[in-house]
# Entry
Amino acid sequence: MTNRITVLSETVINRIAAGEVVERPVSVVKELVENSIDADATSVQVDIEAGGRKLIRVRDDGTGMSRDDAFLALERHATSKLRTEQDLVGVATMGFRGEALASIASVSRLRLLTSDGLDPAGTEVVIEGGVLRKSEYVGLGRGTVVEVRNLFFNVTVRRKFLKAHATEAGHIHEFITKLALAFPGIAFMYRENGKLKVDAPRVNSTLERVHTLYSRDVRDNLMDVEFSSGDARLYGYVARPPYGRSTMRSVQTFVNGRPVRDKLINGAITRALSNLMERGRYPLAVLFLELPPEQVDVNVHPQKAEVRFVNPQQIFNVILDGVHQALTGAPFNPPPGPRERILPERPTTPVARHVQDRRPPVQTDSAQSRAPAPAPPPTSEPPPPEPARGESPRGLEEPSNRFSSLTFLGALPGSFVVLHSENELIVMDHHAAHERVLFEDLKQCDRTGGGFETQDLLIPQVLEFSVREARALALHLDLLKNAGFRVEEFGEKDFVVKGVPVWLGTVDLEEFFEALVEVMLDTGVKGDPHRGREEVLKNMACRAAVKETKAMHPEEMRALLRDLDRVGSIDVCPHGRPITVRYPLSEIRRKMGRR
Ligand code: ADP
Ligand code: MG
# Structure
């Protein structure tokens, strides 16, 4: 009989661990740079060649290691960051498993140069495929250099899965950018094949870092995010739509300073932008979430990019409200009170004019929090407002005059008007602008249970539907009521329209409702009733907004600009298309050949 069970050798174990820790070149960069940060470096230099496959070198000016520690560091589960199980709760350092260096050394040729500045000489160690090849004394100032060559030279399978060099380099570049944002107090330098890609000196604030890393164009469009709820705080920047990118990679998120890519967080951001971005476009954002360490588990995945929250709903809402408030001046589901305070004394636009002053009672408290995706079924009452959560309701205290400060110059053919500010010539689509105002007012009234003035029809109009259509419409009767319609069921699948909101103007009711029902059927099947409701309101707003051919009088135009500011100075229509196109006067001056 032969024994079949053997204990795996250290080398084999390391290689298995490497499979988890070291997925691709960026994982190596991540582990090495995080070690540098943990070692209190104030300057980190990263060099890569051939997408990291030929070379990854990370140099830091951190604490360095003594000779003994240098050897220990290369052993599995050797770490200076964790001593007891107790330490696992609320780990403040980046790495703590003590397996990164050993793993990387098992699948590459790793050269470690380090000095703690105390020993008379520094240490050089070379390990190839987990086997010690060289150990020397070297002259070196305090700090550490880790050089990783020929990554995965002994792991054919892994090598095959690597993408093109440019792709791998792209990931590394993105990661360095991310860390540079998280640690403005550390200088970062990053080179690809000798070419300098990131050069970020030490600065005092994230904003200064943003200035180094992003172009002027981006910076001009960034809005401050600052929002707190309970013990969670969200801060950072988000670009004002329509400014955006074509992938979600332009969203940089951090939890307690640690870069993460998390589904829940991204979902909340996407939701906050659902009526602000065109489909397929993504925001540009740098967001930091701070919460007590015991509220978050970052140890879900060895790569530590994912996190688990103790209270995911609270986190979803903080992000949803915080991002929405930064872009519109109000949380996603604001309590009804404060927003109404900024309604003008005498509403002026076709829409606002018909919003009656019927303030719903302000609810003061509600412990209930909203669920991430599902919203209340269409037949129930609108969700109770949560207690005011924002610490900085900027938009509420000082309404923006982004639009109302503009000067109206005249109309262009179509739905365009020309305006200007001190430094821009602006073309505005007044149809799109009206759509936004009407949509925001409809949303507000749907939330607070009505407020639009209704005009009774002289002759009620009966509308006929199929059974399926009738069912969809019946589910939205409260929405119609909140929007100012008086519609009642009439027999099994017919409805009678007795009154319409004044904002509607003259439309063919049959056509109007046909289109609405189509949206209700369309969105109903997608499953999120809250989203479905918004789609219906969007459709209403679009069909009732000022017709494209209508000429705008200066007085109407001024009212529209005030209304735009009243609903949050948002620069896109509910479909995410821009309301304005802006031409900097400086650019015009330049084109005119003037200085
Ligand atoms: P971990 O970071 O999880 O502890 P690593 O394998 O990444 O595990 O590193 C092992 C140990 O080596 C660390 O705990 C640290 O003491 C030391 N070390 C690694 N990199 C550096 C560095 N750049 N500067 C100083 N010490 C380092
Ligand atoms: Mg580490």
